[in-house]
Every structure is written in C-alpha cells, then in structure tokens.
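Below sits the subject:
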Amino acid sequence: MNTYDWIVVGSGITGSALSYELVKKGFQVLLLDPNPILDGATRYSYGGLAYWSGTTELTRILCEEGHQRHQILSDELGVNTQLRELDLILVVNPDDDPELIAQKYRYFATSPQFISIEEACELEPLLNPQGMSGAFTVRHGQVSPEHLNTAYIKRFKSLGGTQIFDQVLQIYPIQNQAVQVTTHLEQYEAENIAICAGGLSRQLLKNAGISIPIYFTHTEILETPPVDLKLRTIVMSASMERFQLEAKSTQPELQPLWEKPGHELAPFIVDKSAAQLLDGRIRMGQPSHTFSDVNAQVNLLESETLIRQEITKILPTLANLPATCYHCLVAFSSDSLPLIGAVGNFDNIHIFSGFSNPLVLIPPLAQRFANFITGQPDPIITQLSPLRLMKLIG
C-alpha cells in the first residue's frame, strides 16, 4: 500500500492550490481526481477576482492578500495566469430599485458606484439600454481559471508531488491516527486527508459516515469558441441572486431535506452574466438549482434555451452565438465563508471547500492552512473551522 503525509481529493483550484502549498512545506502529497480533464466549477468559472468585495475584517484581509498573491503567482508558478483588470458592470434589472441595491453595496471594501444607462453603455457598448434601469461598476480582476489551475499542478509535480487519476470510493479513518482511501484501482494511506472536491465534498464525507454543512448548486453555463466579438467588461446581475438562493436553501428547517434525494430546496434562479477570456471564448449564464442529489439530472437543452433568453435582455448580440452548454456543481456554505479544517471528531480528515469568492480567497487560504498545520497559529483559519456550523446539522 502506498503511504503519504497528505492525500488531497479533487484537482480543481482548491485541491491544486492546497497540494502545492503542502508540498512546499516538505510533505509527501498525493493529489487524487477521477478525471484527467478539468471539468468542475474551476473549468467553467468566469475567472473573476472580486478583490473589492470584502465586507468584514476577515474577508477584507483575505481579499487584499489574494490581490497581492495574484500579482506574483505567474512568476512563482512559472505559467502566465493571464491576470488582468476590467470594469465589472452590475446590471440593475428594470424592476429593481437601485437605491436598495446601493445600500447593500455600501458594506464592501470598495463600493460599486451607480452609473446611468448611458454611462454603462459607454463602458460596454454591447449592453441593451432597454434591459436595465441603470448599473453599478467597480474594477474587477480576472485570470484564466484553467491556466491558474494548470500552473499550480505543474509546480506541485515539479516539487515532488504525485498526481493520480482515480476515483475515491471510500474513506476510512484508522483510529484517528491515519486515513485509508479506497479507489477503483488501489488503496492508499496517509496521516491526513483534505477533501477539496467542491460540490462532491458533502457526498464523499457522507459515504464515510460524516455529516458536514457544505452544500452545492447545479449550475449551467454556455461557452462559445473563440469569437471576434469583444466584450470590454464582465457583466453580471446587480441583485446577486445566487447569494439569495444560497441563503434560502440552507435555512435550518431545510437541513433534513439535504440528506434525501429528490428535493429542490429553493426555486432556481438565473444570474444574467457574461465574461470573455483572453483567448476569445465567452462564458454566459447562469441558472442555479439547489437539488439535494449530486446526481440529479439537468436538462441542458432547457438550460441553454433559458440562458439565451435571459442574455437577450442585456447582451442581445451574444444570445445567438454558437455555444455549448455545460453543467457543474458549485459548493457553498450557509454563511458564504469556506469550511477549512478538521471535520467533527476526526483530527485527520480535513475539508477545504465551500468558497463563494474562490479565485481570490483560495491562494491566501491555501498558504495559511499549510502554515497552520505546521504549527503556526492563525486566528483566521480557526474562525473558518467547520465546527462553527456543525450545530446546523446536529
């Protein structure tokens, strides 16, 4: 049986970043993932870096650290992450009250500023002026999520880390001193395991008899091939429907339903949004559903039709572009903060998942967690322990 100091499950951005930071500390690390082709939430994200969005001392510190980390990651990892800054346009729906939205934005480290329809269309000429009652804007970072993920894994492997493509079937704690992992092909043992499997994290831990308050949405996006049409900005909804959905679906009275397949915990939402990567691909979306089953079937044809209908309202020239519809799971927690640390009474089983602002927060938190488990006290990592939310499922 192959043994390691750490096994990290999931090679999206959470797993790749954490694996890299652990191997930098001198640990023997195995990174496990069933798929050699990146196909989770990292692959289909917009690459957005919301440096501006901290609303508490904790999140403001982490957003600033994330900002600083991204400035040096290309050089540190040896791969260009395609970091850049753009204007983010937050479109106000015709029926929404801009003043109510502005009140929510005033808590952010950098508050998005209200602009008129004319000013919004000046920043983004592809916007439909009839599809909004105004907009907010703020400067916003962007990377290529695939390039960043690849960079982390490449550097991880160059430092001696091991990556194996195999599906985890079961996790067995061994007298709280080690962890054994059974996959399709092999068995592995490690002193510690970190679950970084995004929307699958809850199910993996449930299979091990561990209940944890991490949740997931089923989300779809449309992705075009590289096109000549140019978006100057990233466009999203000012109402932040996704965060409202997450809050509604994790109310205490709904907790038992998350344990049973066949339930939709809250009405689905569509966040009208679009972003273009430097290679010319445009990603548009995005419907989100809170189905309780990770294997729930989603009708991609219906999702594509819905996305195109919604995009027509704000960016009509994008609505008929050739595109493919993709589905993924997106992990979240009930308080919009990630879950980081040992789960329940299992000192050797850790979670590193549930990021609502992932591409900003993951680099600094992966670094902090690696420092923490090597003995460096960190009140931020302590605050993000899953224990803070365990009463929800107790």
Notes: The chain has eleven helices and 17 strands.
